[in-house]
TrEMBL record:
<comment type="similarity">
    <text>Belongs to the glycosyltransferase 20 family.</text>
</comment>
<dbReference type="GO" id="GO:0004805">
    <property type="term" value="F:trehalose-phosphatase activity"/>
</dbReference>
<dbReference type="Pfam" id="PF00982">
    <property type="entry name" value="Glyco_transf_20"/>
</dbReference>
<dbReference type="GO" id="GO:0003825">
    <property type="term" value="F:alpha,alpha-trehalose-phosphate synthase (UDP-forming) activity"/>
</dbReference>
<dbReference type="GO" id="GO:0005992">
    <property type="term" value="P:trehalose biosynthetic process"/>
</dbReference>
<protein>
    <submittedName>
        <fullName>Bifunctional alpha,alpha-trehalose-phosphate synthase (UDP-forming)/trehalose-phosphatase</fullName>
    </submittedName>
</protein>
<dbReference type="GO" id="GO:0005829">
    <property type="term" value="C:cytosol"/>
</dbReference>
<dbReference type="InterPro" id="IPR001830">
    <property type="entry name" value="Glyco_trans_20"/>
</dbReference>
């Protein structure tokens, strides 16, 4: 039987070295949390990716290989240099900021581009070690945009799908990339290319067309589609009803007795709009003094890309501003913002979602945003309000959320007030509508719509080039 080989930069678990040993922890981020919670397909499945440690850690590597093998995970070890140039550099200082409309954070560096090409080659070699004729290879995300073309060139019988988990930007942004044609060419060789929203798909085609017209020789993409990624609705829904979660919910409700809890959950990333959110909450307190002391913001922030300068600066800035705002509005034993800089175990996270009266999900730009969907899935028939940025892919599906422009501080403050004051019947009505959407469009729906469409496509040898 043919295999399904999933390839992404990271594996769904990462190894944290501890002397001569290590322990495995779950990888945060939507790609991993979403995909790993999906059901297995009929084919034998395995996953290729980086376990988060470099190839220097030899004693750890052998034992790690053994443990990963049992989980059908195949590690790709990056060198320290490639971790810096391919992962922190080209992936997270070039593609990530540019595709999220932060050109001012983007740098363009030949050495990093070389490393990106080299690591895409390295992933190609790893795939070819296990791929047999007619296997399906599903490549994920912006770290591996050259891989579809490399695979098709080396083994044309493979069926290759590519899914982009971040926005595809408009032409005026994309064409800033000195390697725009190579990136398009790399993706376009896939038999099927998937995006979260129609807008991203449209921009991709627009870039293809315009770059081709400008005289560059690039492959024509054959099949593209829109597949909004989602979550395992049943897992969140069921877990949220368990006695253990109810106890965790009670713990938080007791802690914040007679107070409204506003929750935000993100990786510490400048695209998530964490500072803008903080200022909007400050404005809300300023404009509504009666809520000072009885509306609390709980900010759960998970460390991310801590070696990248912009992320470190954001942390310092955020913690400074948090301190300032808390200093301004606190009373003894009563502070307005509770901040946690760490990853939480799944049950604690679900308990917090369950306890939260309001989820404040306001990225400046986000491919999808699964946190918004996770919050809704835990709410049962109950109450809860979702405030959601118009710039998250999830906003196209979750129409019953209170939608906001995260750059508009006054409108955000107003949305918080509206959420705090929304009556229960209205909350339940909106929650019902959003839950219906996510229950049907769950992560299995996403996975199998993509794979079924890919399997129905006749693989082709080499994509036609057009000028
Ligand atoms: P991204 O992929 O950009 O990180 P998403 O919102 O799509 O954004 O996915 C984030 C995922 O990481 C969610 O599944 C969320 O539950 C998880 N996550 C975020 N912060 C934490 C945290 N502090 N503890 C545990 N899980 C977290
Ligand atoms: O979905 C966006 C994403 O970049 C994923 O590719 C990745 O799993 C996640 O965010 C976390 O980022 P990192 O792998 O850099 O820790």
């Amino acid at each position: 039987m043919n295999k399904l080989i999933i390839v992404s930069n990271r594996l769904p678990v990462k190894a944290i070295p501890r002397g001569n040993s290590f322990h495995l922890v779950p990888t945060e981020g939507g790609l991993s949390t979403g995909l790993k919670s999906s059901s297995g397909s009929d084919s034998e499945e395995c996953w290729i990716g980086w376990p988060g440690i470099s190839n220097r850690e030899q004693p750890v590597k052998d034992e790690l290989n053994k443990q990963l093998e049992q989980l059908h995970l195949h590690p790709v070890f990056l060198s320290e240099k490639d971790k810096k140039n391919y992962y922190e550099g080209f992936s997270n200082c070039t593609i990530w900021p540019l595709f999220h409309y932060f050109p001012c954070y983007t740098h363009f560096d030949d050495v990093e581009w070389e490393s990106y090409q080299k690591v895409n080659d390295q992933f190609c070699m790893e795939v070819l070690k296990i791929a047999e004729d007619n296997d399906t290879v599903w490549v994920h995300d912006y770290h591996l945009m050259l891989l579809p073309a490399l695979l098709k060139k080396k083994k044309p019988s493979l069926k290759v799908g590519f899914f982009l988990h971040i926005p595809f930007p408009s032409y005026e942004i994309f064409r800033m990339l000195p390697w725009a044609s190579q990136i398009l060419d790399g993706i376009s060789s896939a038999d099927l290319i998937g995006f979260h929203t129609e807008a991203y798909r449209k921009y991709f085609h627009e870039c293809q067309e315009k770059i081709r017209k400008s005289g560059d020789n690039i492959s024509t993409p054959r099949n593209t589609g829109v597949f909004p990624m989602s979550i395992n609705f049943d897992k969140f829904n069921k877990t949220s009803k368990s006695p253990e979660i109810k106890a965790i919910e009670r713990k938080y409700r007791m802690r914040f007795k007679d107070q409204k809890i506003i929750l935000s959950v993100d990786r510490l990333d400048y695209t998530k709009g964490i500072l803008h959110r903080l200022y909007a909450f400050e404005r809300f307190l300023e404009q509504n003094p009666k809520y000072v002391g009885n509306v609390k913001l709980v900010m759960l922030v998970v460390p991310s890309r801590t070696n990248v300068g912009n992320y470190r600066e954001l942390k310092n800035h955020l913690e400074g501003e948090l301190g300032r705002i808390n200093g301004r509005f606190s009373h003894f034993g009563n502070i307005p913002i509770h901040y946690f800089y760490r990853s939480l175990p799944f049950n604690e996270l679900v308990g917090l979602y369950k306890a939260a009266d309001i989820a404040l999900v306001t990225p400046l730009r986000d491919g999808m945003n699964l946190v918004a969907k996770e919050y809704v899935a835990t709410k049962g028939k109950g109450k809860g309000v979702l405030i959601l940025s118009k710039f998250a892919g999830a906003a196209y599906e979750l129409n019953a959320a209170i939608k906001v422009n995260p750059f508009d501080e006054n409108a955000m403050a107003q949305a918080i007030k509206e959420a705090v004051e929304q009556d229960e019947a209205e909350q339940e009505k909106r929650m019902r509508a959003m839950r219906r959407t996510i229950k049907i469009n769950n992560v299995d729906h996403w996975k199998f719509s993509f794979l079924n469409r890919l399997n129905g496509i006749n693989s082709r040898k080499a994509p036609p080039k057009q000028t």
